[in-house]
Amino acid sequence: MTSPDATTTAPAPSGPRITAAGRRTRDRIVRTAAELMFRKGVAGTSIPDVQQAARVSASQVYHYFGDKSDLVRAVIRYQVEQTLQGQQPLLDRLDSLDALRAWGAAVIDVQERRNCEGGCAIGSLASELVESCEAMRADLVAAFDRWEAPIREGLRRMRERGVLVPEADVDRLASALLAAVQGGLLLSQVRRRTEPLRAATDAAIGYIETFAA
User: Fold this and answer.
1) How far is it, in rounded angstroms, from Cα 76 to Cα 30?
2) Burial of 34 (0-12, 13-18, 19+ CB in 10 A)
3) Residue 5: pLDDT above 50?
4) Distance (Å, rounded) from C-alpha 59 to C-alpha 87?
5) Cα–Cα distance for residue pair 48/173, rounded to 1 Å
6) Sign of CA dihedral 156, 162, 163, 167
7) Strand pairing partners for 212?
8) pLDDT mean across residues, the chain
9) Burial 75-92, CB ≥16 within 10 A → b, else e
10) What pTM value is reported for the model?
11) Where would a tag sit more exposed on the chain, N or C end, judged by fewer CB atoms within 10 A?
């Protein structure tokens, strides 16, 4: 969940060295594609759409990306980086139930500021792409794994500090919490109100609280 107008982008895959100007051009193409795909979907975004919005030529797009699939995969990496960048300060401080609630409140606040439009950038990509391309499905698995990892580490810190009982399965709890957030984001997007997201987040955190020491 990140603002579609955020400015940083995911690192490019390893390959030929490019100049600073080339890096800026590539980043603008990825950022523009991410914005368009967030609003219009992958199927509704063409390479000419990206060219026009990013003010680049077709040769510039294809210089950095072999085809649209390569560009989409770059967008997936971009969106997970943006999501983590926006949440990392709170995720890094997950060491108590109050900190967990603060992170949940921040997730809800983002959707309120958006009027619940767009939902989750990663989740939207997943719903459109996961059945169409195995390589992209693997990228989406990696994206959700990266998002889940700091949640799991926060829960592990809570267990180590004695906030949660030793028997708490932090892997399972982290997956349950992220799944609840994803479901809540989807219903909030459809209904254009944050109550479903709030209910899902509260329920998941309430379940984690049952493991409080």
Assistant:
1) 10
2) buried
3) no
4) 36
5) 43
6) positive
7) 164
8) 90
9) bbbbbbbbbbebbeebbe
10) 0.83
11) C
